[in-house]
Amino acid sequence: MQAFLFDLDGVIVDTAHFHYQAWRRLANEKLGFDISEEFNESLKGISRTESLDRILAHGGVSLDDVTKEAYATLKNQWYVELVNQMTPADILPGIIEFLAQTRADGIKIALGSVSKNAKPILEHIGILSAFDAIIDGTKISKGKPDPEVFLKGAEELGISPSECVVFEDAVAGIEAGLRAGMKTVGIGQAEVLTKADIVRSDLNNFTPNELKNILFPEQ
Ligand code: BG6
Ligand code: MG
């Protein structure tokens, strides 16, 4: 076990509900329908443009490309307004301690997010320097569940995928990690993240060593 690749939204920071709030506002104010929290599960880990396509299909609405572009931009403006109000308190439980212990144990750390807002968010909450590599929405051409984001992370770190562990809150993200040939830790509910190697509600009171004993008992 030589590297950890972390998703951002819903794993490191509590931004998954900001994405939902901003999309819901767009659906309510511009599209004339509502989106449930359950439907929102299917948007986690999905790129901005693909998310809008899924929302439109869900509501049976079709739009021309110019309007779609304008709505995706509007959603992002609302999302950024919410994100800018964030404080370090929005860092999820146990993350700071887990990252510090990971570094102390000599395990490499990468970010693997499809968000184009990833870097400014990490800067905003003051943990950009915790990462040895950052792969975000500006560096990839295929969103999750494609493994590209995690394979690029492993490559940039110089670590074989079989020695990597992915931390994800999204079904599409767990799928991406598995397709990359990596072990996966689901952050959320076991009933939702059924394919993950293990699932925890958060990383509070958990250590890289405990994880190694579960995922790589032979090492
Ligand atoms: C993912 C989120 O991390 O990033 C998705 O789970 C989001 O909900 C995607 O759509 C793209 O984010 P952004 O910030 O580029 O719109
Ligand atoms: Mg996520």
From TrEMBL:
Keywords: Isomerase, Magnesium, Metal-binding. The active site is at D7, D9. Substrate binds at residues 7-9, 23, 43-48, 51, 75, 113-117, 144. Its cofactor is Mg(2+). Mg(2+) binds at D7, D9, E168, D169. Belongs to the HAD-like hydrolase superfamily. CbbY/CbbZ/Gph/YieH family. This is Beta-phosphoglucomutase.
